[in-house]
Amino acid sequence: MSWRVLDFTSFNGRISYERGRIKATYRDGSEKKVSLAEIAVLVIADKTDVSSGLLSMLGQNGIPVVVTDWRGVPVSVASGWSTHTRVGARQIAQSKMTLPRRKAAWANLVRAKVRGQANTIRALGHAQEAKDLEALTSTVRSGDPSNVEAQAARLYWSAYFSEGESRDQEGSDLLNAALNYGYTILRGHCIRAVTEAGLWPALGVFHHSRSNGFNLVDDLLEPFRPAIDYYVAQLPGNSAMEDPETRRKLVSASSSQFHADGRTVSTMLGSLAQQFGLYAEGDIQQFRVPTWCGPFKAEE
């Protein structure tokens, strides 16, 4: 099973393909090799040279390549064609999904996300804010017309951050930078899950940006963000994004346990994408979204 995330954002050298493995060649001539079968996501930045042969093999094996800028914020993604046996039928069905079914799916995603935020905040010691977030979940209606997601975000982030700090996608402080990096890894896993499920990544249920080729990815990963948030909050205050150990911890967050039966964040992403495919084709009528229930346990 593919599970490893290879982070080459601080790597200065060339990566290529050799007999079923990724070969990393440093500027001093030293080399390291990792089996391609172990890799789930590859992350690179501007100092990494990539051979066309490796890109071809990554595409054939469905391994997404996330390219980031110097801050670790993704600027592009390369992924292979889906090999799902019903990719054509599934994407046609996805494009013909009725508005009520799309709205129902988004409402379930929002409820699960806000419940997960409540559980993360509770685990971080904010019991009252957790209760307030849980109360908001009962107000989510089809399509979330009252934008409960945004209401919850304001409450959630004000509790998550210390006084004088706030969520800023452009922020370079530790928490914001770590959240951005953790979400980048999460998005890579979700891109792979959506592609493997034979779905059309650009066709979302809520996100619909004309410039975003991964709207559905950004829909489906929402309930998983609170798990990443929890692990980011566990970083020691003296951590630095330049430290390989910090990045290792953030990478491992996407492989942490999400479900009570032991399934991980990345595994559950795969299950959710497959379920959405069945929902799009009409094979199931209810789109059930799992909820992160705090460290080491979750429930559906």
Structure commentary:
- The protein is 44% helix and 15% strand.
- With 300 residues, the protein is α/β, with parallel strands linked by helices.
- It folds into 2 domains: 4-78, Ribosomal Protein L15, Chain: K, domain 2, CATH 3.100.10.20; 87-299, Four Helix Bundle (Hemerythrin (Met), subunit A) (Up-down Bundle), CATH 1.20.120.
- The chain has a 4-stranded mixed sheet with strand order 1-5-7-8. Strands 4-3-2-6 form a 4-stranded mixed sheet.
- A hairpin with a 2-residue loop joins β2 and β3 (21-26).
- α3 (99-123) runs parallel beside α5 (148-160), α6 packs across α9 (244-253) and α6 packs across α10.
- It starts with a strand and ends with a strand.
Name given to the CATH homologous superfamily of the largest domain:
CRISPR-associated endonuclease Cas1, C-terminal domain
Overall morphology: globular
CATH fold category name of the largest domain: Four Helix Bundle (Hemerythrin (Met), subunit A)
Question: Radius of gyration over alpha carbons?
Answer: 19 Å
Strand order of the largest sheet: 1-5-7-8
In what range is the share of β-strand residues?
5-15%
CATH class of the largest domain: Mainly Alpha
Q: What oligomeric arrangement do these chains adopt?
A: single chain
Main sheet overview: 4 strands, mixed
In short:
The protein is of the alpha/beta class.
